[in-house]
Amino acid sequence: MEHSDPTPSQAPVTAGNRLTIDLAALARNWQSLAARADRAETSAAVKGNAYGIGVEPAVRALARVGCRTFFVALPDEGLRVRAAMPDATIYVLNGLATNLASVHAEATLRPVIGSSGELDEWAAYRAAGGSGNAALHVDTGMNRLGVTFAEAQELAADTGLVDRLGLSLAMSHLACADTPAHPLNASQLATMQDVKALFPGLPVSLANTAGIVLGPDYHFDLVRPGIGLYGGPFVEGMAPLETVVTAEARIVQIRDVPAGQTVGYGAAQTLARPSRIAILSTGYADGYHRAAGSTDSRPGAATFLHGRVAPLVGRVSMDLMAIDVTDIPEAGRGDWVELFGPNMPVADVAAAAGTISYEFLTSLGARYARHYLGDA
């Protein structure tokens, strides 16, 4: 039996899967976090193609509700933000790439400088007459990017450094903010307060989404929410904000499989009962992780269809995956199945694959037909 599309989003008939992206929910999530941040400016992390939803529509939606500062990982991402919002302030988190100081400055991208080599190159560029601003990243305990606190002390001793380098921000990144009781949070906060004292008058940023929830001491002058904007979980035990992304796949076939038989590659799962199996037109080539599949030794992820949960059966393959619809008799060819969204949280699907929601969102493949709710 054929079934009509049950949702208002109309994907092309050539697409096997689709994303419905609620830009209004994205904007409301930003407003909720901005309200928590109180007097601190609220920016937005739009790296990783805005966590998979698309840089340009995300930036435009956020700009409409007042966001003016954006964080990306790479200069290429920054150029896309610049094209979407010509007057935005844009910071490049992965630092100053070798021999690209002029490229950053010409596009008014601000590199987040986090090593002595980057500092030397940026200083030489500015001394030769180059323009542009930059941020200084100080490592407060994550041991990933950033100059050490001792190096920051040496830099602060040069009273003309901030103006000479065009520094507009001092920042660091919390390692354990999603676990509020972790002692490293307080340690990083104390170090960042010392950094602020080293550079009086220079704006300071520490808090990611979870850091905003830790309280006003962590807010400083600028907060940088990321995953929370896109509806992902950000603090242990706290419900996420509104769902932004709903991923769906089309049923291409339904088949009856006897008890004792297996489904898919590797015969990974044996059916314990006669089952009605729906085959979905999506797989790991679309960013749905292979590790989310089900085996005889452990259950995998689940999907949502016609108001009920339908678990995965067997391995996820490149372009296809199987779900058990034995208890959903109305399921039929052409139905759209929720892979994750309002009824099937992305965090639950990611946990079944042994990963986190960030990885599912940022891995969303090009074959999804993207439909935007609100102005894109």
From TrEMBL:
> Looking at the record's lineage, which domain of life comes first?
Bacteria
| Ranges in a coiled coil | none
Q: What reaction gets catalysed by this protein?
A: L-alanine = D-alanine
Pathway membership of this protein? Answer: Amino-acid biosynthesis; D-alanine biosynthesis; D-alanine from L-alanine: step 1/1
Keywords, in A-Z order: Isomerase, Pyridoxal phosphate
Which PROSITE patterns does this chain map to?
ALANINE_RACEMASE (PS00395)
Query: What HAMAP family does the entry give?
Result: Ala_racemase
Q: What is this protein called?
A: Alanine racemase
